[in-house]
Amino acid sequence: MDRLTNAIAMADPVIVLAGSVALLLAATILVLAIRTASGRRSAALERELHNLVRAQTEMQGRMATMAELFGSRQSELNAALGSRLDGLSQRIGSTLHQQHQTTHENLRRLQERLAVIDAAQNNIQSLAKDVVGLQAILSNKQTRGAFGQGRMEAIIADALPSGTFRFQATLSNGTRPDCVIDMPNGAPPLIIDAKFPLESWNTMRDAQEEDARRAAGQRFRRDLETHIRDIAGKYLLPGETQDTAFLFVPSESIFADIHEHFEASIQRAHAARVVIVSPTLLLLSIQVVQAVMKDQRMREQAHLIQGEVAHLIGDLGRLNERVEKLNSHFSQARQDVEQIRVSTGKIARRGERIGALEFETRGERQAESVERPLAPHGDDDPAFSGVGRMKLRVVDED
Fold it and tell me: pTM for the whole thing?
C-alpha cells in the first residue's frame, strides 16, 4: 500500500509537467502564428516551429513510455500487494482459529472448575447446616443429653451382642441409668451414665475474659463433682450393681482437657468409684467385657467341646486301624509283585535261551558221526535220517 501511494505521488508531478509543456507549446505556436501573419521572419519561424513539433513528438513518446512503465509497475505492485494481503489474511485467520480453540479450551476448563467450586460450595452449605443443627442440639439440655446417649448407645450396640445390655433399665431404687451391661458368671451388671454437664463446659469454653473463664471453670468443677456424687449414690447398689460405674464423655478433647485442668475432680471420681471414659476408652472397656463374655460362653460349652474331642479321638483311632490294614494289604501286594517279577525274570531268561539255540547243517553232522558212533536208531527213522538229522546245542547256560 505504501509503494502504491509513493508511485502515485511520483506520477503526479510528471503528468503536471507534461501538461505544462503542452500548454507552453500551444502558446508558442500561437505566438509564431501571429508573427507569421505579420509576415516577418517566416523562414525562421518555420524552422522553430518544426523544432517545436519534433520536441513535442519526442516529449509525447517519452510520456507514453513513462505511462507504460508506471502501468507495469502499478500492476506488479498490485499483484505483490494482493499476495501479501492474502498471506496476511491466512495468518490472521489461522491466529484467530488458534485463539478460538484456546479460548474454548480455557472456557471448558473454567466450567469444570466452576462445577467443582459449586460442588464444594454445596458441601460447605450442607456442612454449615449440620453445624447449625449441632449448635441447636447442644443449646438444649434434653437434646444435648440425647446426643451423648446416642453416641454411647451406638458404641455399645456395635460392640456387644444383643441381649447383653439394656438401655434405660429401672433399678430397685427406682432410678433409670442410661445403660446397664449384664456381666457373665452371675456378676452384677455394669452401669454407664451419659449425662455429662456439657452446658457448663461450653460456658467455660466460650468465656473471653480471664475472670469469666475462671468463674465458669469453678462452676463446671462443681457441676461435675455433683454429678459424680449423684452417680455414686444412685447407681452403685451393693449386690445389685458393680461397685464401679462409668461416666461417658462424648468427646476426646473434653476428656483430655478434664484430665489436664481438673485433676482434683478426677481424683474425687476415683474415690467415689466412678470412672470417666471417652468414646475410645468406652470402646476398649466394652471389648474387655466382650472377651470376658466369650470366655464364659466357652466355659459353658466346655463339656460339649470335650465330647466332640472324644469323638474326634475315636475317629482318629479307627482311621489309624484302617491305615494299618491298608498298609498290610500294600505289603502283601508288594510281595506278590516281587514274586511276579521273579517269575517274569525266569520266563525272560528261558526265552533268551530258546532264542540262542543253533541248528547244525548235514555236513557238520556227518563229520561228527565219524568221530562218534551212531546211535542205535534205524536209518528209516525220519528224526535221524541223513537229510533231516539235526543237533541241538545250548550256547548260554545260567
Answer: 0.42
